[in-house]
Model the fold of this input.
Amino acid sequence: MDYIKLSIKENFIKLDAAMKLAGIVSTGGHAKNVIQNSEVKVNGEICTMRGKKLYKGDKAEYNGQGFEIE
Done:
């Protein structure tokens, strides 16, 4: 899988915001739903916390698309 590279200036970004930034979901509500429905993986494991903090090097996947924080 090719991962979209997301550059952040802060120390971390929350999962739902990162999904919107990567263009994998169109709205925060959509991100919330797919995260709570156990459809998102962070670093290879299912994640149901939409406020999960992602740091540089973390990877997330949803619906055949993925992104990596850099």
